[in-house]
Amino acid sequence: MKTLKSILASVILVTMVSISAFAGPESKVIAVVKSAAWYPTCQQNGQRAMVAFMENNKNGLIQFVTADVTNDDTKLKSAGELKKLGLDLEAEKYKATGVAYFFNAETKAFINQISVAKTDQEIALAMKDALKGLK
Q1: Mean pLDDT for the chain?
Q2: Which of 12, 50, 84, 122 has the most CB atoms less than 10 A away?
């Protein structure tokens, strides 16, 4: 039952991140959330972190995309999405799973990162700092 719950939470995380509906057309930052269904941090914190991301992005200035490394199929799909955004090479430099990496949407420069295991308040602060970090 615990495994099923973990899988369900991971699927919800990937689905929520994959849907860029909570990103506005004037997104200034792209957040690449590196996740995997088998990774404990994603299983335990992914769903809560996604709620925190959405609650702190009501203006849509941050676009969220997933880099799902669960298996070869999800890696390939995620790589295609990152390539469309011009972040495939830059995002590849950051390997840790269970982390949101923030990039300048225009220049593709790395701004900052936050683990999904951090508190909702820490996630909100990292998002604000990412937007402040734009030059």
Answers
A1: 86
A2: 50
Q: Over the stretch 75-128, which tens digit does the pLDDT of each residue have?
A: 999 999 999 999 999 999 999 999 999 999 999 999 999 999 999 999 999 999
Backbone dihedral region for residue 31 (phi beyond 0: left; psi -120 to 50: alpha; all else: beta):
beta
- Residue-range domain boundaries for the chain: 2-132
> How many C-beta neighbours within 10 Å does residue 94 have?
14
User: Which CATH architecture describes the domain 2-132?
Assistant: 3-Layer(aba) Sandwich (3.40)
Q: What is the DSSP string of 72-117?
A: HHHHHHHHHHHHHTT-HHHHHT---SSEEEEEETTT--EEEEEETT
CA–CA separation, 93 and 129 (whole Å): 21
pTM of the model: 0.82
